[in-house]
Design goal:
Structural class: alpha/beta
Number of strands: 13
CATH class of the largest domain: Alpha Beta
Helix content: 40-55%
CATH topology of the largest domain: D-Maltodextrin-Binding Protein, domain 2
Distance between the termini: 77 Å
Number of helices: 17
Mean pLDDT: 90
Low-confidence stretches: 1-19
Radius of gyration: 24 Å
Order of helices and strands: HEHEHEHHHEEEHHEEHHEHEHEEHHHEHH
Strand content: 15-25%
CATH superfamily of the largest domain: Periplasmic binding protein-like II
CATH architecture of the largest domain: 3-Layer(aba) Sandwich
Amino acid sequence: MKRGIFVFVIGIVFIASFMIAQQIKVTFWEGMGGPLGKTLQTITNLFNKENPNINIELVFVGNGSQLDSKILAAAEAKDLPTMTQAYPAWTAQLVYDGVVAPLYTFPNFSEVENELYPAEINLGKINGKVYALPFNQENYVLYYRPDMLAESGINPPKTMEELQTDAKLLTIKQNGKTIRYGFAFRTNVMALTSVALQFGGGIYVTQNGSITINSTGNIKALSFLVNLVKDGYAYETPGYPDHELTTSSVALLLGGGAWLPYDISDIAGQKDGLKMVPVPYGPNKETTPALKGEDLIIFNTANAEQRDAAWKYIQFLLSPAVQLYWAMQTNYSPINKNVTSLDEWKLYVESSPYNPAPIAEGLQNAISETELLPWWPAVQLDIKTAIENAVSGFMTPQQALDWAQQKAEGIYQSYYLR
């Protein structure tokens, strides 16, 4: 009897060992810190449980530029993971380096593509072919303090003209000192793009490759922001304005949807709370949000089994159910078109105190704030500098964007002539 039990146990151990040995390991470099990382781990745990032959291992390697620099270094050292997150410009560089597996060649790609918004597909498209798909994408919204607006007898602005008027009405000055600004924004490219899209701008490189940083629409948008600061109705900052919201010194804030649970969560506990509406529209009277976020790419240096397993995981991440959960937990935009028709999404929007509907509105018209070009990060830094120069009064909006245009043309020429 004991011998029989021993043989049975040995058999179970052997089968378990065999299954582990057959398990396909996928290493995923990601940049989701804090609560975002915990949510991604929860999603990944579910995938691993449903797919016992696959083990997705999340490796947090830092966010933003930290992640991108490590990916580029790993590509040069020929020591890449199976898959990674990457900003579109770095995706382009990696594609040009020849290390990215083209996603359009994987099974069921067209079905996945059809469920996503075109603007998001374009984030990973080079020469008409898709090498990457989006994941953590946020659009800018207008946050507002409900009690402050109610006290002033106004509703959240729907147009840029109303935003200009409301910023003035909501600003409070005492003894020559501003104790509350009507409006606040970060001096970054995303803020400019979000406003410029409403003025017919927001495009920095046309489809035929022309650089249009100093277009009429972009100059109008930067002038709009500069004038609000100059008149004393807007607060500008290079960083996250969480302190300004917490201290109630700002009534309206142009910011990313994903800031809510991560960067401005302090405000959520205050009694007068926080709500959001879409970015006010301009003359076209249509919500046109800017998108910002990272792509998902698979490296062709992984073996075929690993690439197929990574593709299965990407399909899982972009499915309606997972995108619903991801959006509810992180306030990133749900990039699967089917999410907004789900009863669970409608119930979430109705029951949430923040009115999260704007993170999913207008995505069919959305445009990325970045360009899928390997030389674009350097240009973005110059546009950011131009915004700061204009806001500080060092340059006019026209002069600032003319300067950024000139710098971009030089960077473009240097890249292709090197």
